[in-house]
Backbone:
């Protein structure tokens, strides 16, 4: 790691304004920075300098580990490939989602998530990775085996976030059977009889397991300081349940009513960056832009397209009159960092970690020109 790095002629995105100036990095931390011209340092030629992005919810690792149905890639190599795309998208802190419990998507056997977590530990300890990786457990509370999977992660120090999920039909993400039928029956080519049996099974499992499993997981996370997230909340009752469990992050609420109630209760409301870039939800739920315009959107997640996280911030700043670029950048830096208790990063301030990204804008699409993590150039 270089002892000193100097940057000049940059548009520096601070918490509430964009200033033209220079910045120094020393010992992996942000040092002095100031406005005006400087003759010292790397010339940014007017490019933006923003904090490194903090990604709380990405399923992207799964596609590298299992690139085709039934195919498994070397776990460490898959993590390196995932990490490379993460870092070159400007993400310096990432929470990799690992699924707990068999759900509709399926495809992974017992122990495979633990295998991936162990490989992540190896890759991080051996210095193979550019971004800093934590684990986000996606807990399908309606699944009979969710606690079996969860038990293998109770003492894992990289677990910093857990979401409480129930994808059973007729609620939350799938409030209408039309959505559920398209997503599962049509795409998978199920017969009518097979689909009816599948729906009945998932509903029965939800009624039997969701409440007790949710309670066990929430109580454990509260006891060890793991941040809790709710998922696909649709009603005020869902929000009330989340409040009672100490949830801090409301992921992908499926109604404006639930999003507003979550935001007003002090939770950070998270929506997908692909939703913003595309102009709507791929599953027919509410548009992230509607929440942004209503002032109740707090955090963005790349979900399944890593580069969408950076792209969406500039879409927001360009297209939503009430949101400035610093406010949009906060949704992918300081707010997610604060939500999960990472107070050492997410802002350009003296004494914070030098997790930084140089961004050039060309025809409205950002170009990542350089990335630093703790002052070290990683992309």
Residues:
């Amino acid at each position: 790691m270089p002892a000193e790095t100097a940057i000049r002629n940059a548009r520096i995105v601070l918490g509430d304004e964009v200033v033209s100036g220079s910045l120094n990095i020393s010992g992996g931390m942000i040092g002095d920075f100031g406005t005006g011209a400087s003759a010292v340092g790397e010339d940014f030629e007017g490019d933006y300098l923003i904090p490194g992005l903090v990604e709380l919810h990405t399923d992207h690792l799964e596609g590298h580990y299992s690139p085709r149905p039934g195919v498994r890639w070397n776990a460490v190599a898959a993590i390196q490939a995932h990490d490379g795309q993460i870092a070159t998208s400007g993400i310096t802190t990432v929470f990799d989602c690992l699924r707990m419990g068999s759900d509709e998507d399926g495809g992974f056997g017992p122990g495979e998530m633990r295998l991936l977590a162990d490989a992540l530990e190896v890759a991080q300890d051996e210095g193979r990775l550019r971004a800093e990786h934590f684990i986000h457990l996606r807990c399908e509370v309606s699944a009979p085996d969710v606690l079996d999977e969860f038990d293998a992660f109770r003492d894992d120090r990289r677990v910093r976030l857990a979401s409480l999920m129930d994808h059973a039909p007729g609620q939350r993400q799938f409030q209408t059977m039309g959505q559920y039928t398209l997503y599962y029956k049509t795409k998978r080519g199920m017969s009518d009889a097979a689909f009816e049996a599948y729906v009945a099974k998932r509903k029965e499992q939800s009624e039997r397991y969701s409440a007790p499993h949710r309670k066990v997981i929430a109580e454990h996370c509260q006891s060890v300081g793991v941040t809790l997230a709710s998922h696909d909340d649709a009603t005020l009752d869902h929000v009330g349940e989340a409040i009672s469990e100490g949830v801090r992050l409301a992921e992908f609420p499926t109604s404006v009513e639930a999003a507003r109630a979550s935001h007003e209760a002090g939770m950070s409301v998270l929506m997908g960056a692909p939703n913003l870039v595309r102009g709507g939800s791929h599953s027919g739920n509410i548009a992230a832009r509607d929440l942004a315009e209503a002032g109740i959107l707090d955090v963005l997640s790349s979900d399944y397209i890593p580069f969408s996280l950076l792209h969406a911030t500039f879409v927001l700043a360009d297209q939503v009159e009430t949101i400035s670029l610093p406010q949009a950048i906060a949704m992918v830096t300081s707010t997610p960092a604060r939500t999960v208790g990472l107070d050492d990063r997410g802002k350009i301030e003296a004494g914070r970690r030098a997790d930084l990204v140089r961004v050039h804008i060309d025809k409205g699409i950002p170009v990542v020109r350089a990335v630093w993590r703790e002052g070290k150039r990683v992309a």
User: Anything to note?
Assistant: The chain has 13 helices and 16 strands.
